[in-house]
Amino acid sequence: MRYSIKTFIFVLLLFNLSMARTVHSGYFSVGEDKLFYETAGEGPVIVFIHDGLVHREIWEKQFASFSRNFLVVRYDRRGYGNSSAATGRYLDVEDLYRLFKHLQIDKACLIAMSSGGRMAINFTLQFPEKVSSLVLVGAVVGGFPYTEHFYSRGGHYPSGLRDGKQRVRYYLEDDPYEIYGENTAARAKVRRLLHDNPRKGAHHHYGKNPSTPAYLRLHEIRIPALILVGEFDIPDVHAHAGAINAGIPNSKRDIILKSGHLIPMEQPELFNTAVQKFLTEIYSR
User: Fold this and answer.
1) Structural domains of the chain, with CATH
2) Which of 30, 179, 184, 263 has the smallest count of CB within 10 Å of its CB?
3) What pLDDT, in 10s, does the model give residues 125-147?
4) What residues of the chain score a pLDDT lower than 70?
């Protein structure tokens, strides 16, 4: 039986889409706690690391798209998503290393957001042999200072706001930097994600401060790095992005238009295009 080229391409496309949708999930133990992860696809490894507000599903558009050409991994940090709340002291860097060991990952590209980006930088400095490249999204870096504008969110943050649920509500509904005002669909999506799977309890993230702050060691990172910042993100995050870009020799920085802090949700197509271009340049060398 003979098939036309169009039929063959259509079948191949369906096959690729089905492969992209095959998701494997599980848990790995970190002391008394269990952390949830998902994997899909095959090829060079990408590990997605979420920010401090939303869990692993913030990478929904990226996880599906990049699984067509890569083995993609995303996981919930302690107290987020399907992972258990922290029962004791821990370090995010050590949790990530245990994920690498559990999944037998030799080396990966880390795509990390915000505080997850800070952790990815720390991980790269501690385990340079495990990281092939970095994509840092609205990331901050340890030891680099913040202004009062950052802490007060430009005067918008209510004084004395301590309750966790109220703080989440502020960042989701009232903060002018977390999600750009025009991105109403992204706001609704994040609202649903947090409603369906809210953060669990307090975080006991303790560890010794390094003798040399991470921002003073950025020159040690010799792998390709892409630094992305939303056009309307808070000025301090832009400052951190500039410091990271200046510190990492083989890095490039770009601004994603019409986005606040949560770029993968707000502008997924622009984000995916920028990252795909970056990865294509790396793997075509």
Assistant:
1) 22-283 (3.40.50.1820)
2) 184
3) 999 999 999 999 999 999 999 99
4) 1-21, 201-209
